[in-house]
Design a protein that fits this description.
Helix content is 56%, strand content 0%. The protein has a domain of 96 residues. Helix 3 runs parallel beside helix 5. The N terminus is likely disordered. It has 291 residues and is mainly alpha-helical.
Length: 291
């Protein structure tokens, strides 16, 4: 008896589902038929349709700025920092990490060269994000007085590799004549990323002393570091050695190939002449003592 009741309820449920399905399908077909019936009316041109004419819209040049009215200029950075400005820059250092970091970077850039000693101080802060943003801000300010602090970071073996690499990139663009000591240290670093960055940035240093440093990396255990050294040497001298299959080379192969570069260097180093004297180290940033 109970089984019959369950079977009857299941049959009713199926009948209702079938009715709903049939009703939905019917509505869909009605909609499709409506659109199909109306399509020819929309597409077929009738006698009452007005002709369509193509016309060229006349070009109207944009309004030119009125040069007689002076525009709004950015507030220039102060010539001399007031005590309030110094306190402001000091308070901006922790903000180089967090939601306001872009605003803090903009504030440092606004103060220009006056911000350099505070950003150099930020390079020694515990938070790695603060140190990285300090390097990035120094690249925007583009003041050579930041070089000593950047090179110190680049040669620091305890610093994170991404910060060391970025510091060397920024320092090379500020003054490539000052980065050779840092490159000499970094090409011997146990971190392959540091060695690769050093030998890559060496191609931006048009000085004779950097060429032996590049040759010493051609036999690097890491293939991509070795290839980077080969390309940097070619950028400076247009010498690429014999044709070798670098993609499948072993460290032993590269040690053997490196001899070609040393032989070439011994034969051609005199043609580079005397290396010009290095520029004097930049003066300390501003005349402020930032502890």
């Amino acid at each position: 008896m109970i089984a019959k009741i369950h079977l009857r309820g299941f049959t009713k449920g199926m009948s209702m589902t079938q009715r709903i399905t049939i009703r939905s399908q019917t509505m869909c077909w009605v909609v499709v038929a409506f659109f199909l019936a109306g399509a020819p009316l929309w597409a077929e041109p009738g006698p009452s349709r007005s002709p369509v004419y193509l016309a060229q819209v006349p070009y109207e040049p944009p309004l030119q700025p009125d040069e007689s009215t002076p525009g709004v200029k950015a507030t220039p950075s102060p010539e001399v920092l007031t005590p309030q400005d110094q306190e402001r820059l000091e308070s901006l250092i922790p903000l180089l990490e967090g939601r306001q970091e872009f605003w803090a970077i903009g504030e440092f850039v606004h103060f220009g060269k006056h911000s350099v000693p505070y950003l150099v101080k930020a390079l020694r802060m515990p938070a790695s994000r603060v140190r990285f943003n300090a390097v990035e801000t120094l690249s925007m300010i583009n003041d050579p007085s930041a070089l000593p602090g950047l090179l110190e970071v680049a040669m620091n073996p305890d610093e994170e590799s991404k910060i060391r690499s970025h510091a060397l990139r920024v320092a090379t663009r500020l003054d490539p004549n000052q980065v050779i000591p840092a490159i000499a240290v970094m090409v011997k670093d146990p971190n392959s990323t540091i060695r690769s960055t050093a030998v890559f940035e060496a191609r931006r240093v048009p000085r004779k002393e950097v060429l032996p440093l590049i040759i010493s990396v051609i036999s690097d255990p890491e293939q991509y570091v070795s290839i980077t050294a080969r390309d940097s040497f070619w950028n400076l001298t247009h010498f690429s050695g014999s044709i070798h299959d670098w993609e499948v080379s072993t460290p032993e192969d590269r040690k053997e190939w490196e001899k070609e570069w040393w032989t070439w260097w011994e034969e051609h180093q005199e043609q580079f002449g005397e290396t010009p004297q290095s520029t004097e180290p930049p003066p300390p940033p501003a005349n402020l003592k930032v502890s």
